[in-house]
């Protein structure tokens, strides 16, 4: 599904992973993971603090979906770009 981007927007990809130990019959160790991937059209003037707000919202979403109390969370933010005629061109 394609999002709607206006001139001056950039496509930002957010990936959040959660993982933690769980008990599983017949196994000595078991780890469960959950991954969420989202994209968002944001203006080029977006600040790091605003990106952190989006990450925090996704952390909350993942915590609510995860069944265990003891989890580790990680986030990755991607902005895809290339150089074209000496200028940065954002992909998406």
Give the strand order of the largest sheet, numbering strands 1, 2, ... along the chain: 2-1-3
Rounded Rg: 17 Å
The pLDDT mean sits at 87
Percentage of β-strand residues: over 45%
- Element string (H = helix, E = strand): EEHEEE
Assembly type of the shown chains? single chain
Uncertain segments: none
Bulk shape: elongated
Instruction: Classify the secondary structure makeup into a structural class.
Output: alpha+beta
Helicity range? 10-25%
- How is the main sheet built? 3 strands, antiparallel
Report the total helices: 1
Count of extended strands: 5
N- to C-terminal distance: 12 Å
Quick recap of the structure?
The chain is an alpha+beta fold and 92 residues long.
What does this protein structure show overall?
It is a single chain. This protein is of the alpha+beta class and 92 residues long. The chain is built from 1 helix and 5 strands. The radius of gyration is 17 Å and the shape is elongated. Helix content is 20%, strand content 46%. The strands form 2 sheets. Strands 2-1-3 form a 3-stranded antiparallel beta sheet, with helices on one face. The two termini are 12 Å apart. Strand 4 and strand 5 form a beta hairpin.
């Amino acid at each position: 599904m394609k999002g709607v981007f206006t001139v001056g927007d950039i496509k930002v990809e957010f990936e959040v992973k959660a993982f933690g130990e769980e008990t599983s019959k017949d196994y000595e160790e078991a780890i469960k993971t959950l991954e969420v991937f989202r994209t968002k059209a944001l203006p080029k003037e977006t600040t790091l603090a605003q990106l952190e707000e989006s990450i925090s919202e996704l952390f909350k979403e993942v915590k609510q979906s995860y069944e265990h109390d003891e989890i580790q969370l990680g986030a990755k933010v991607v902005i895809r770009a290339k150089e074209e005629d000496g200028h940065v061109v954002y992909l998406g």
